[in-house]
């Protein structure tokens, strides 16, 4: 069978953090607000012996309880694997913590606008957003320095903002913040270095080409730095990198406000990287069109990733089909596959929790359907029937409850093992879900989880059905329960590739010694490529994410009982992970 561990694919993503209403109790003076910075620590998988790892820290934002950090963090994301992060916010003045909490990357991706708002301990709110990240195809940066045009004893700093355009609005996004300096300092501010990729608009960044970013709008905003009170805006101006080049070349004054005395000059400017030009004297006024280069593979736009579709609003719909054939034995006998022990979980329950907890995060309403197959009702064998009282259930708890309710409905376990009916039903549902989503300018993709104790009785019929539904927005994950010989299920992994059809099925045997992380990674590792290949083959591209116009509901942080982390800071400002301690025991239920 396919070895899922050899096919794991990670996707780089970018984590952006903000906070509001932070605690001010660590400041020495009541009137002085903290200078918060955030430390991001990657927590070990639940149940593992791995250690926590510090990913990095943001820059401190002086004198505020509402920081908007520019420093972002790149992470390797893998569908089917929980990625927990500890976020601890410190006051840069005292190096004491003022807020902390735990977030999970997949949960953020599954949220509307791929953003979450969580309550910090002891107070405050953390805003976290996950967006796709791809290194620019053309590695080029601009370097420039300002010098002040007024004499003052006050200190000032400036920010560089890029312009992002959406269908309904346009937003300014900060990409650089300087150190505070006096505007009459002889050398002015130190030269800044900004990748042109960071300055490019969201539309241009989608092509991963930064060569034309010199004409993208930017805003330079200057602030008066105050130690106690809130920083004050001194003024701003809008321009482009090309405009800065001309201002440097002709020694122009750039007014911070219309008709004001405050101005700055571009003391120096140069580029680095590909197409390097360090002169700062490009002829940007030429009417001649640039030469047209022959396209190369690196010039082609990148293929959308699974993360791109998630960020674009594509939701995953989960359906679960459970084997109630007689091969499972009596559910009343301890040790049988369906025996429900109040003190422990059987393999069906563990598989539901493991897969369901991953997939339902990517569904805004978390509504799933649960079906059974192989049982006899009213003297007739049903190869697909509703499990539980409700046609749709909510979350993993709802799936587990529907599973338990099925045993109280007078079913008689029978046979044979037939997948064809549930597969046809799931494919029909998947097509209907996608059509409904498209009507709302969105996308939907479905996952059918089949939990079986036996091998299919009719291999050829199952092959034919898989061929029939291969054009559906559907992935099928089959988990073999118990110690049966599942060698006959080998065809599920092989025949579609051998016959050139779309591979939509993945079989994994549940093994008692496997932990939850290994099971989910092996079972779900093919879903991202199956999803992207389906949509790309039909030219269905991810939707462009819109800016957040409604408030994000503030939630409690995820309970992560595995360990706590603490940091220390040496005299040189170095950050160290100083402690790893268990804050609560990991129960079997939580581990699964």
Lay out the secondary structure.
Blueprint: E1 11-20, E2 36-42, E3 53-57, E4 73-77, E5 84-91, E6 97-104, H1 105-109, E7 115-119, E8 125-132, E9 140-148, E10 155-165, E11 170-177, E12 181-182, E13 192-195, H2 196-199, H3 202-205, E14 218-225, E15 232-239, H4 241-249, E16 254-255, E17 263-273, H5 306-311, E18 315-323, H6 347-359, E19 367-373, E20 375-377, E21 380-382, E22 385-386, E23 393-394, H7 395-406, E24 412-413, H8 420-439, E25 444-452, H9 459-468, E26 474-480, H10 491-498, E27 505-509, H11 516-524, H12 527-537, E28 554-555, E29 564-569, E30 575-581, H13 588-591
Parallel strand pairs: 7-28, 18-19, 18-25, 25-26, 26-27
Antiparallel strand pairs: 1-4, 1-8, 2-3, 2-5, 5-6, 7-8, 9-13, 9-17, 10-11, 10-12, 10-14, 14-15, 16-17, 19-22, 19-23, 20-21, 20-24, 29-30
Helix pairs in contact: 6-7, 6-11, 9-10
Low-confidence stretches: 1-7, 276-286, 580-591
Return the average pLDDT rounded to an integer. Answer: 82
Helix content: 10-25%
Q: Tell me the β content.
A: 25-35%
Rounded radius of gyration (Å): 28 Å
Structure overview:
By secondary structure, the chain is α+β, with helices and mostly antiparallel strands. 19% of the residues lie in helices and 31% in strands. The protein has 13 helices and 30 strands. The strands form seven sheets. Strands 18, 19, 22, 23, 25, 26 and 27 form a seven-stranded mixed β-sheet that branches. Helix 9 links the parallel strand 25 and strand 26. Helix 6 packs antiparallel against helix 7. It starts with 10 loop residues before the first strand and ends with a helix. Mean pLDDT is 82; it is low at 1-7, 276-286 and 580-591.
């Amino acid at each position: 069978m396919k070895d899922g561990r050899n096919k794991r694919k990670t996707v780089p993503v970018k984590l952006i953090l903000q906070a509001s209403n932070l605690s001010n109790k660590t400041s020495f003076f009541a009137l002085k607000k903290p200078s918060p910075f955030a430390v991001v620590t990657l927590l070990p998988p639940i149940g593992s012996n791995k250690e926590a790892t510090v990913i990095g820290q943001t820059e401190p934002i002086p004198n505020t309880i509402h920081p908007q950090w520019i420093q972002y963090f790149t992470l390797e994301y893998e569908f089917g694997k929980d990625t927990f992060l500890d976020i601890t916010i410190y006051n840069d003045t005292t190096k004491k913590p003022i807020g902390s909490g735990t977030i999970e990357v997949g949960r953020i991706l599954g949220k509307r606008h791929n953003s979450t708002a969580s309550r910090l301990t002891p107070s405050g709110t953390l805003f976290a957003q996950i967006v796709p990240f791809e290194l620019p195809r053309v590695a080029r940066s601009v370097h420039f320095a300002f010098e002040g045009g007024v004499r003052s004893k006050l200190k000032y700093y400036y920010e560089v903002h890029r312009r992002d355009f959406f269908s309904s609005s346009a937003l300014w996004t900060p990409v650089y913040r300087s150190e505070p300096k006096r505007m009459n300092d002889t050398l002015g501010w130190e030269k800044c270095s900004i990748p042109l990729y960071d300055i490019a608009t969201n539309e241009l960044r989608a092509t991963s080409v930064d060569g034309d970013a010199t004409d993208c709008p930017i805003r330079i905003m200057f602030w008066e730095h105050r130690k106690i009170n809130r920083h004050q805006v001194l003024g701003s101006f809008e321009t482009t990198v090309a405009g800065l080049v001309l201002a440097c070349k002709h020694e122009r004054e750039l007014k911070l406000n219309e008709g004001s005395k405050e101005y700055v000059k571009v003391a120096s400017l140069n580029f680095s990287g590909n197409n390097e030009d360090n002169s700062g004297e490009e002829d940007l006024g030429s009417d001649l069109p640039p030469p047209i280069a022959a396209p190369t593979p690196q010039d082609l736009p990148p293929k959308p990733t699974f993360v791109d579709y998630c960020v674009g609003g594509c939701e995953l719909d989960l359906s679960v089909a459970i084997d109630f054939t007689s091969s499972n034995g009596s559910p009343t006998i301890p040790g049988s596959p369906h025996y429900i022990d109040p003190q422990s979980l059987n393999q069906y329950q563990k598989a539901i929790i493991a897969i369901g907890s991953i997939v339902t995060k990517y569904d805004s309403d978390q509504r799933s359907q649960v079906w059974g197959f192989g049982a006899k009702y009213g003297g007739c064998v049903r190869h697909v029937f509703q499990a539980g009282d409700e046609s749709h259930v909510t979350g993993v708890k709802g799936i587990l409850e529907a599973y338990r309710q099925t045993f109280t409905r007078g079913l008689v376990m029978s046979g044979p093992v037939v997948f064809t009916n549930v597969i046809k039903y799931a494919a029909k549902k998947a097509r209907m879900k996608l059509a409904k989503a498209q009507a709302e300018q969105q996308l939907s993709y479905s996952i059918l989880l089949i939990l079986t104790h036996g091998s299919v009785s009719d291999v050829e019929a199952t092959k034919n059905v898989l061929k029939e539904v291969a054009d559906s927005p559907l992935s099928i994950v089959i988990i073999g329960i118990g110690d049966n010989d599942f060698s006959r299920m080998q065809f599920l992994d092989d025949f579609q590739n051998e016959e050139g059809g779309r591979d939509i099925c993945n079989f994994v045997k549940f093994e008692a010694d496997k932990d939850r992380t290994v099971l989910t990674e092996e079972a779900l590792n093919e879903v991202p490529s199956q999803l992207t290949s389906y949509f790309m083959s039909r030219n269905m591209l991810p939707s462009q994410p819109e800016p957040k116009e409604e408030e994000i509901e503030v939630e409690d942080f995820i309970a992560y009982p595995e360990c706590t982390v603490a940091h220390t800071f040496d005299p040189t400002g170095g950050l160290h992970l100083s402690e790893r301690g268990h804050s609560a025991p990991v129960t079997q239920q939580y581990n699964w």
